[in-house]
Automatic annotation (TrEMBL):
<dbReference type="InterPro" id="IPR036390">
    <property type="entry name" value="WH_DNA-bd_sf"/>
</dbReference>
<dbReference type="InterPro" id="IPR039422">
    <property type="entry name" value="MarR/SlyA-like"/>
</dbReference>
<protein>
    <submittedName>
        <fullName>MarR family transcriptional regulator</fullName>
    </submittedName>
</protein>
<dbReference type="InterPro" id="IPR000835">
    <property type="entry name" value="HTH_MarR-typ"/>
</dbReference>
<dbReference type="Pfam" id="PF12802">
    <property type="entry name" value="MarR_2"/>
</dbReference>
<feature type="domain" description="HTH marR-type">
    <location>
        <begin position="17"/>
        <end position="149"/>
    </location>
</feature>
<dbReference type="InterPro" id="IPR036388">
    <property type="entry name" value="WH-like_DNA-bd_sf"/>
</dbReference>
Length: 153
């Protein structure tokens, strides 16, 4: 292994802090920190908030579907749903007529808490967007889509 050639970088960079992955992770960490802070006032975590947002768009999703939509494991989603249900923000039946998936719905309190939290989260996103020069938002979103597609192949 001593004679192994050094791995060539995917693009010119003076060090790892100039790599795309590092910068993307740094931006993600900053976003997560800002969202954690904003959601604390609403007694929500980022995964709980994400779950409420998805359920507002698509009620009756299963645990597995919610996990995929919010980028967490099914096991983690069980914990998230238990917390939301204990707080009275979601409901799901104890049993179902067929299959094992128990559809999840927002309660009235869940919709109220989501609306309140959205204002705080959208303020965080507005701070991000204001940092972009000119009309770069559309291009940035397209770039993110291209990156995800390239990695999904």
């Amino acid at each position: 292994m001593e004679n192994a050639r050094p791995t060539e970088a995917p693009h010119s960079a003076k060090d790892v802090t100039d790599h795309v992955g590092y910068r993307l992770k740094r931006a993600h960490a900053a976003l997560r920190s800002a969202m954690d802070k904003a959601l604390r006032a609403h007694e929500l975590t980022v995964p709980q908030y994400s779950c409420l947002e998805i359920l507002a768009l698509r009620p009756d999703l299963s645990n597995a579907e919610l996990a995929r939509a919010t980028f967490v494991t099914r096991q983690s989603m069980n914990v998230v749903l238990r917390g939301l249900q204990d707080a009275g923000l979601t409901t799901r039946p104890d049993t179902v007529d067929h299959g094992r998936a128990r559809p999840v719905r927002l309660t009235d309190e869940g919709r109220r808490r989501l609306r309140a939290a959205q204002a705080s989260v959208y303020a965080v996103e507005a701070r991000m967007v204001r940092a972009l020069p000119g009309q770069r938002l559309a291009e940035l979103l397209e770039d993110f889509d291209r990156i995800a597609q390239a990695l999904d192949e």
